[in-house]
Recover the amino acids of this structure.
């Protein structure tokens, strides 16, 4: 019978490849979650830092239109492990709202947290967007909303400083400025200013605010010329600096990246004055430097000690209008603010030698590695200190990007119990099978699952098996009609983490229509009796069975082996299960060729399990004709 499985597999490969949603994951336990799949290449696993990936895929950079209809979750914060296996699907929290700068913060009041920006709401213009802090139980602990006189929460940065007392964000304003220093004393133009604010996370108070209009002339911009027509209203304001990242060192001074001046600014905490400029092309640079950069993103202090600062940033080296170098790179630069020298310590080129013309980030990891988000299609890489590329990955889907990508250790402990779905199948009373699916959205460190069955909803729980956790969702197949199921998450020491609710198995509405041969509908087994029977059988005929399913059954269950049709059915069920496992990996539609034999019913039963997985096809296809323009919708509202 095994040839059947092989035959099915060869047919399925062709079918699956054509599915338009084959780049999305799907789960029995969380059918509303369609997380993006990854294509991952590990070049050297040994030297990678421990941790998970934090990304926030979006289809379009501006807020999505609400559909007012049921829509599957795709856009928003997600955690994956180092192999691209889903750990947490977060869009449920904010219903597919566009999310940026999603990352872990290991020390907010001494505890791991998550943070991200939910940008302004197209449906409700009173909602200017929010900085969100979520605890390790995935409950919103704190939100930061911009005060009355501040524009929308800017999408670029939500930089929670260590300890979690304050956070920094970029701030954009539309305002009218004089063009006097352009030699046009009688003229004014509307501009979008770029700056930052530091918020007190306890009180939401703005502790400091800095505005480019006070310090950075339009003549520093690479985008607007002294001869350009001034903008007459706030709606057409020149986005002349485009602030896109900010950080603060222990001395309290700030570093700010302005993309359209190709410059990084050191800003004094005393009076907001510009202490120095590090400018890629400008004569304005205060440093002697032997390198250039442009259209940069994500400047951060790596260390800062007196007059020596090590900073990291992404040198995009180009934008939608053109490239200044042939490829983008992550740079570590040492600044000596006494000698006024700037030296490149490390340069990590984009592994595919490409250009990231929009967005992106570079993150220094605790073990000395560097994690780089190249943004488009979620392309990301991890680099050893010597520059070796240790890992590259991208979304299987070309429809999505993420503004930044991070890697970090994290502990997730959901307060909600694991989700379980169980179903019963069979063609006769002696071949009943219960298939259990379990997942626990956001839980880290789950090593495996114990499964229990109960004869009725409050009956005694009988351990019916164990499976190691290898994926977001774990499937487990057990002999017999198990009516009430509990799944228990266990850590690697075998300690219980949490149990699911007692969940009733689903059965076919009409047993005969799915191939059941018995005279009357099957009735549930008493798990304690079945367990005793198994123990008896297995002590009589030990080590006979082929445990090729290898799914971690720790109880030596063996069905009566003198029934040859049962044995055949089991063999087919096993090969189908293997086929199923492979298909889970690639995801998508199963078309089973039903064979007319006594085992057809089993096949059809399993076909139905899989068919249920074929949830509604993907609803929203973001237009991807052009690169999404980063500056779209970044403007303040007319003030
Ligand atoms: C907003 O209001 C606060 C408090 O009145 C003030 O300190 C701040 O400068 C204002 N900001 C802007 C951009 O008007
Ligand atoms: C600061 O830098 C100096 C010179 O490199 C070094 O001697 C000193 O130990 C550093 N201090 C700290 C706190 O890192
Ligand atoms: C389950 O995990 C444990 C611990 O890592 C391992 O010893 C065991 O072999 C695994 N079982 C299977 C069936 O993979």
């Amino acid at each position: 019978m095994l040839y059947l499985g092989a035959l099915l597999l060869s047919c399925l490969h062709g079918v699956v490849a054509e599915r338009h949603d084959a780049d999305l994951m799907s789960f029995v336990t969380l059918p509303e979650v369609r997380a993006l799949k990854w294509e991952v290449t590990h070049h050297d696993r040994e030297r990678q830092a421990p941790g998970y990936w934090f990304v926030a895929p979006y289809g379009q950079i501006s807020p999505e239109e609400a559909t007012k209809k049921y829509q599957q979750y795709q856009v928003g914060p997600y955690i994956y492990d180092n192999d691209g296996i889903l750990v947490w699907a977060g869009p449920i929290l904010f219903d597919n709202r566009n999310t940026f700068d999603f990352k872990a913060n290991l020390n907010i009041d001494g505890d791991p947290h998550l943070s991200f920006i939910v940008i302004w709401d197209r449906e409700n213009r009173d909602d200017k967007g929010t900085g969100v802090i979520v605890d390790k139980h995935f409950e919103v602990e704190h939100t930061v909303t911009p005060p009355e006189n501040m524009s929308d929460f800017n999408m670029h940065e939500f930089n929670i400083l260590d300890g979690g007392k304050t956070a920094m964000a970029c701030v954009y304003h539309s305002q009218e400025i004089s063009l006097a220093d352009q030699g046009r004393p009688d003229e004014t133009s509307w501009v979008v200013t770029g700056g930052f604010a530091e918020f007190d996370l306890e009180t939401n108070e703005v502790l400091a605010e800095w505005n480019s209009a006070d310090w950075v002339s339009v003549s520093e911009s690479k985008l607007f010329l002294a001869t350009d027509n001034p903008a007459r209203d706030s709606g057409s304001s020149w986005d002349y600096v485009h602030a896109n990242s900010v950080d603060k060192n222990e001395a309290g001074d700030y570093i700010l990246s302005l993309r359209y001046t190709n410059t990084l600014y050191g800003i004094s905490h005393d009076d907001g004055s510009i202490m120095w400029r590090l400018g890629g092309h400008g004569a304005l640079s205060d440093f002697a430097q032997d390198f250039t950069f442009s259209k940069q993103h994500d400047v951060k202090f790596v260390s800062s000690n007196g007059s020596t600062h090590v900073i990291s940033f992404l040198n995009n080296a180009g934008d939608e209008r053109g490239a200044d170098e042939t490829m983008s790179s992550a740079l570590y630069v040492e600044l000596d603010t006494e000698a006024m020298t700037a030296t490149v310590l490390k340069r990590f080129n984009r592994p595919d030698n490409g250009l990231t013309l929009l967005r992106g980030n570079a993150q220094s990891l605790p073990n000395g590695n560097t994690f780089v988000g190249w943004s488009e299609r979620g392309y990301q890489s991890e680099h050893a200190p010597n520059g070796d590329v240790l890992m590259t990955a991208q979304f299987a889907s070309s429809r999505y990007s993420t503004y930044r990508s991070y890697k970090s250790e994290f502990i997730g402990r959901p307060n909600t119990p694991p989700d379980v779905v169980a179903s019963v199948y069979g063609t006769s009373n002696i071949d009943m099978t219960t298939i259990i699916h379990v997942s626990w959205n956001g839980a880290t460190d789950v090593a495996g699952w114990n499964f229990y069955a109960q004869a009725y909803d409050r009956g005694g729980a009988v351990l019916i098996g164990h499976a190691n956790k290898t994926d977001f969702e774990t499937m487990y197949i057990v002999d017999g009609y198990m009516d009430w199921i509990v799944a228990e998450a266990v850590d690697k020491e075998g300690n219980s983490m949490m149990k699911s609710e007692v969940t009733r198995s689903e059965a076919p509405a009409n047993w005969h229509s799915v191939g059941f041969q018995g005279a009357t509908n099957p009735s549930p087994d008493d798990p304690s009796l079945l367990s005793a029977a198994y123990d008896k059988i297995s002590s009589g005929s030990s080590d006979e069975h082929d445990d090729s399913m290898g799914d971690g059954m720790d109880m030596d269950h063996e069905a009566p082996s003198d029934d040859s049709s049962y044995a055949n059915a089991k063999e087919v069920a096993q090969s189908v299960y293997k086929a199923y496992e492979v298909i889970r990996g690639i995801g998508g539609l199963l078309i089973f060729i039903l064979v007319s034999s006594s085992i057809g019913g089993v096949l059809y039963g399993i076909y139905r399990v899989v068919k249920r997985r074929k949830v509604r096809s993907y609803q929203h296809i973001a237009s991807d004709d052009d690169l999404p323009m980063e500056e779209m919708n970044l403007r303040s509202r007319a003030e």
Notes: The domain at 419-524+622-632 is CATH 2.60.40 (Immunoglobulin-like). The pocket of 2-acetamido-2-deoxy-beta-D-glucopyranose (ligand 3) is lined by residues 468, 550, 552 (CB under 6 Å). The two ends are 73 Å apart (CA to CA). Residues 1-17, 540-570, 584-604, 607-639 have pLDDT under 50 and may be disordered.
